Structures are given as C-alpha cells and as structure tokens.
Amino acid sequence: MYTDNMRFDSVTKHFVVFEFRQGGNKRTERKQGMDVNHIKQVKLEIYTPAEYIGELRDSLTALGACKIGSYDHVISWQETKGCWRPLEDSNPFQGEKGRICTGEEVKLEALCPIALVPGALKIIRSIHPYEEPVIHIIPLINDWFE
Predict the structure, then answer these.
(1) Within 10 A of 55 (CB to CB), how many other CB atoms are there?
(2) Distance between CA 48 and CA 79 in Å, rounded?
(3) Deepest of 19, 99, 110, 130, by most Cβ within 10 A of its Cβ?
C-alpha cells in the first residue's frame, strides 16, 4: 500500500499522500493525512509448529479475531524454515543450548481488530510452545482506501 507518492510523517504520526497534477506549467499538490491512531485492524503473523495451527485458530476466533465479513476461522499459513541459537539462560522447546538449530514451522496469518490485540497476545502466548514466540503485529490501512 505504500507508494512513491506516500510518506510517513513521524512527527504528526500520519501518512501523507501527494498527488501531482500538471496544469500547463503549474504543479498542484494535495495532502491527505492518515492518522495511525485510526487503525482498526492488524495482521498477526505467528511463527509456530504446524501442530498448533488448529488450537490457535479456534482460540483466536473465539476472541473475535480471524473474521472477514460474514466468515470466521479465516487464517492462512505457509510452511517455512527457521534457525535460532538457544543461549545459556534459555529453556528451548527444540534444540540445544549454545548450538545453532534449524527447523520447520509455519507462518500463520490472521486478521485481528486492534482492540483485541492484547487478548490475542495473551492467548497466543498461553498456547504457543516456544519460550519466545515470534509474533508480528502489522497495522492494516486497507479501509483508508475504501
């Protein structure tokens, strides 16, 4: 969604869209502020072993996430590989302390209303087997263009 004619103003916390129109030799500019405080929805990206997909999906749906229009239990996942090295003070789910490990997992993606994110994180951490689960919370601005 981020384009060459769009920038994020870190002072005002707005995305600013510039439109340039040629009118003879004159160029006009229109600025449209998009306030990040008005983000309604995020995408959760959760890296997890595949056997946890169903439990995460069902629990997040029960919270009110994983919904698009008249559909619920909406998620997607992709198989991926990762690597990590458990440090001495860790308690690894998989692998050995001090050794670089690799393994297969999935990247699960789900939509979540912004107000439900704290509850979603609590649910994910209660189910997820990793000591330090990788969870990305990505703001979505799709509704700004409707």
Answers:
(1) 13
(2) 10
(3) 110
